[in-house]
Amino acid sequence: MFNKGKVAVIGSGFVGSTSAYTMMIDGVVSEIVMVDINKNKAEGDVLDMNHGMPFVSPVKISAGEYSDIQGSDIVIITAGAAQKEGETRTDLLKRNIKVFDAIIDSMLPYLEEHTLVLVVTNPVDILTYYTIKKSGLPAHRVLGSGTVLDTSRLKFLLSEHTGVDSRNVHTYVLGEHGDTEVPVFSLTSIAGMSVNAFCESCGRCESHTNMEQIAVKVRNAAYEIIEKKGATYYAVALAVDRIVDSILRNENSILTVSSLVENKYGISDVCLSLPTIVNRRGIEKQIVVPLSKEEEDALRRSAESLKEQIREVM
């Protein structure tokens, strides 16, 4: 039996409210506090969710101020300027840095020694790094949602391509949550076989060509969704819920969250996604997995791209 925790969500927009709703349904938390500059929006979301409480396990959900996040096990930051059609994640950076200055200053007085901070706002890798540096919190207590969603997208597309349950597709997307992300096909497996070997055995795939096409679809997924409906929030909310589960249940799950990397693959002083053991402590350990030369080179390019963006604002 595990102790359900208290979670605060800063930002009651599409991602924040949907994440809260998803955690409410999952039943992994005992309390959710919604904080938003638009108090009416936060209060409206809370009312809407509370009216469905008879259908789920009991959860205390409230709208509050920054002082109400005190006692939280996890503070989830989803607030920020929304990504517009045709706008890259890096275009958001300077606007969201200003938002984070206000958030970090407001939340710090109310964090407990054990409180973890989960950054979801894009560009998530840079804002995770910025949160660590500005807050002064230990690096293991600050993590970003990273490529948990990208990895899920890759698993789904490979599932569609091979006709196999996506839960039985094992793979990672590493590096930036964005344009320089690195799908790790060299480690992708189905039924204990490499994905290329599986495709050859089932006869449905032209493996190399199709893998490249799938990689492009994963990379462009957010842009496609934003073009069609204006924002992405369902799948990212499920990704947030999965990370929260791993933390509160102390699961030691391996997730591709974003965290501060030091001396891995020749990369240091940048936040990006690697396979990482996640538990109540936050970041327990980053795992150095064997990559192909091309993947390792691409990962280092991804890190350098992020560093260039960081240098623009810090």
Strand order of the largest sheet: 3-2-1-4-5-6
Helix and strand element order = EHEHEEHEHEHEEEEEHHHEEEEEH
* Individual helix count: 9
Question: How many domains, as an integer?
Answer: 2
Structure commentary:
By secondary structure, the protein is of the alpha/beta class. It folds into two domains: 5-144, Rossmann fold (3-Layer(aba) Sandwich), CATH 3.40.50.720; 148-313, L-2-Hydroxyisocaproate Dehydrogenase, Chain A, domain 2, CATH 3.90.110.10. The chain is built from nine helices and 16 strands. The protein has helices spanning 14-26, 39-50, 93-107, 124-135, 148-162, 195-202, 207-229, 234-248, 293-313, and strands spanning 5-10, 29-35, 60-63, 74-77, 116-119, 142-144, 169-170, 173-174, 182-183, 189-190, 193-194, 253-255, 258-261, 270-273, 276-279, 282-286. The strands form five sheets. Strands 3-2-1-4-5-6 form a six-stranded parallel β-sheet. The chain has a three-stranded antiparallel β-sheet with strand order 7-10-11. A three-stranded antiparallel β-sheet has the order 12-15-16. The longest helix has 23 residues, at 207-229.
